[in-house]
Amino acid sequence: MLPTEIRIGTASWTDPTMVRGQVFYPRGVSTAEARLRYYADQFSVVEVDSSYYSLPDRAIARRWVDRTPPDFSFHLKAHALMTGQPTEVARLPDALVDALPPALASRARVYAKDLPAELLDAVWNHYLDALTPLHEADKLGGVLLQYPRWFIPSPANKALLADAASRLAGIPGTVELRNHHWFDGARATGWTLDMLRDLGLTHVMVDGPQGLESSVPAVAAVTTPALAMMRLHGRRSATWEAANVPTVERYRYLYAPAELDEAMPLIEAAAAEATRTIVFFNNCYGNYGATNAREMIARLAVR
Question: Which residue range forms the structural domain that includes residue 111?
């Protein structure tokens, strides 16, 4: 076993392709409570993807606490508006919809840049308040800030990262950048990593399709000593940026044993520097992510 805490899990436990037909869950494990209890018996960490689409709810977070072991942890993806991406107005809480200016309330989708400052504050406050049960139970691993491919290196975007770090106020923030310009050469890579270190944000190492605008290399680096993270998205290049492709199809990729071996040096390098290293398989199609997570656990002899 490596001399650090390593946790490995998947980026969902509720994907429709994962819950159907005994793909991952055995017969009889069919309720929300039973599925989470079963998942938490198999893995020690999970990423919550639903919080990107809809703001989380404190009551649901309390149920997550009750349904998982004391040492289990959750990492939640930041809501779309928190990373400059659009969200459907219909998915926002009624109080926020009612507070929208009429011109925005009538739209199907809104961006953070369109919101009055006080409404963006309300989005952040709602999100962070919902995490309170997890925080109090010491089950909140962190918040993933996944930025879109149009989020490029610039003073304005550095300021947005600094604002996010300030708003998280001590909650571990992990950052996945999806534009290759952040890592174009040694100089850009060094600048990006130094910026994350200065802001106290965790660099997310990525394994994913290469050669595209949103492709970033798998940079083995730790920017916060308490936490390192790697996310594996699969390598399905043909669908990664394709239009009108269901999200699940972008991640329909099962890593071969040799490809898992390629990821191990990055995990080991991170584990040599960080107190805790988290590895998420985001290839959540059917049992692909869970299968690869179990294979990586066996390789590293950890859970």
Answer: 5-300
CATH code (residue 283): 3.20.20.410
| pLDDT digits 0-9 by tens, 53-77 | 999 999 999 999 999 999 999 999 9
User: Which residues partner with 10 through β-bridges?
Assistant: 281
Tally of structural domains, the chain: 1
Encode pLDDT of 213-271 as tens digits.
878 999 999 999 999 999 999 998 888 888 888 888 888 899 999 999 999 999 999 99
d(CA 80, CA 17): 23
Q: pTM for the complete prediction?
A: 0.94
